[in-house]
């Protein structure tokens, strides 16, 4: 999913920190269903729907409701009239939300790519960027958090319980240089084992 945002910048909600490196985006979006929320704080329909989406997201990701957060991410793509309006809106939303920075032309690219003609709109994407639902507003209103299970199955997400049972070296989500770092780690480990063997035999290292 991070490939959708290659070369782009996202903002972390509240802290307003940039989330722009490959590693950061991968950590935030990999192996998750992604919601692109197109909306405006001044839109009456958005004002009615946004609290529902907030509740929907919290019930799937907040530890108050669930023991383990669902594999779900959300990026806010605003049609707000100014940056302060967007910032004020996001402050009332969950901290885990990400956002396209105000004034970024990438917002228009996303609208065209996913044929968003009106707001509110919630585009549901698989981790590879394929569309699961073109606009899930009605589905979320009708079904609430239960619709996530359908999306999860459609996205064919890897169960995190399975990931946790595996060797972290096999699935660790790092930057593009990670294979090189893992190789160095393995070489270092072999060297360390060899050194211990030499010490036990009472021989000096070469």
From TrEMBL:
Any one GO biological process: photoreceptor cell maintenance
Residue intervals of the Thioredoxin domain: 1-142
SUPFAM superfamilies in UniProt: Thioredoxin-like
GO terms under cellular component: mitochondrion
Domain of life: Eukaryota
Alphabetized PROSITE patterns for the sequence: THIOREDOXIN_2 (PS51352)
Protein name per its UniProtKB record: NXNL1 protein
This protein's encoding gene: Nxnl1
